[in-house]
Amino acid sequence: MENELFQKMAQSVLDGDSDAASALAKEAVDAGIDPLEAITKGFVTGVNQVGESFASGQAFLPELVMAGEAMKAAVATLEPEMQKRGVHRTMLGKVVLATVEGDIHEIGKSLVGTMLSASGFQVYDLGVDVPAARIIAKVKEVDANIVGLSALLTTTMVKQKEVIDELDKLGLRKKVKVMVGGAPVTRDWVQKIEADGYSEDAIGAVAVAKQVLGL
Ligand code: B1M
User: Per the confidence metrics, is the pTM higher than 0.90?
Assistant: First the structure.
């Protein structure tokens, strides 16, 4: 039953059908299915397939855009439930979150933001395509404990390093922990740029955020 629903979710993203994706997300909430499970076992399966077809030249940009929109519609419907399921009695820390400059992929970053905020972090989500200077200005403004940097392109990963270098130059590197993520990010890269934390997914991001703050 659940598997059938997950398959339909994947299909709605493959079809780029935002209305269907949103309706299926609502169905999952009504059925008491864990929203994150609906995302990972359902919708993400579809978006990954579109990504693979795009990489092999079997799908084109419009399909990628529509899949992204359907994915966003599903996540937007599931987000209130994710927030509701979070337990946050105390504020664990302040996180400035962004997708780096030159990169407009927002779904994974926003999911990480939702999970962090549902787990008790105060999240300042600056959105996508955010230059290092804006990220650092926000870190200073809110006195952030963590900077979270998402990058989905091999060409924009380097901007994660740029932010770290800038923090270093300004003498802020010891004060603020840097957490990175995004599909092309590897442990080697994380070591190379000397980030403090890395996670492959949104649930892991919460554990890593707590870990880097010693919580
Ligand atoms: Co783009 N795109 N895209 N795209 N896109 C990829 C990333 C790609 C791998 C597709 C492919 O070729 N197979 C490829 C990158 C290749 C590379 O660099 N190696 C690619 C490309 C090439 C492009 C364009 C250049 C295409 C073009 O124009 N010719 C272009 C670039 C635009 C730009 O940014 N400047 C482009 C555009 C787009 C759309 C706008 C159409 C759309 C995004 C819509 C949106 O976000 N509003 C899009 C989409 C949808 C994808 C794929 C298919 C799916 C991304 C996604 O949302 N995944 C993607 C292929 C793929 O990844 N399978 C692809 C679902 C999401 C939940 O997962 O974002 O990985 P993800 O986030 C995960 C983890 O990575 C992690 O947790 C999240 C939740 O589990 N995580 C973090 C993410 N950030 C984290 C931060 C953390 C911790 C964990 O700490 C701070």
Answer: yes
